[in-house]
């Protein structure tokens, strides 16, 4: 899968707009747009880092929810 497709798929999984996604992960909007359009390619490790960040945030969210359910 191309880097552009990976970035787009990750963003779409979050349900965020490009602008919200760029703010969330701390990468400029123009860069996200260029990656998704295939005008530029992110370094190979970037999609993996973004995927890791999103999975980590999901895990933390689940843990907090479980903690609240116990209280």
Automatic annotation (TrEMBL):
<dbReference type="GO" id="GO:0003677">
    <property type="term" value="F:DNA binding"/>
</dbReference>
<feature type="domain" description="HTH cro/C1-type">
    <location>
        <begin position="7"/>
        <end position="42"/>
    </location>
</feature>
<protein>
    <submittedName>
        <fullName>Helix-turn-helix domain-containing protein</fullName>
    </submittedName>
</protein>
<dbReference type="Pfam" id="PF13560">
    <property type="entry name" value="HTH_31"/>
</dbReference>
<dbReference type="InterPro" id="IPR001387">
    <property type="entry name" value="Cro/C1-type_HTH"/>
</dbReference>
<dbReference type="InterPro" id="IPR010982">
    <property type="entry name" value="Lambda_DNA-bd_dom_sf"/>
</dbReference>
């Amino acid at each position: 899968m191309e880097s552009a497709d990976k970035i787009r798929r990750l963003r779409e999984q979050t349900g965020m707009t490009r602008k919200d996604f760029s703010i969330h992960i701390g990468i400029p909007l123009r860069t996200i747009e260029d990656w998704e359009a295939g005008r530029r390619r992110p370094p190979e490790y970037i999609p993996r880092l973004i995927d890791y960040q999103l999975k980590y945030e999901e895990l933390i969210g689940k843990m907090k929810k479980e903690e609240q359910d116990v209280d």
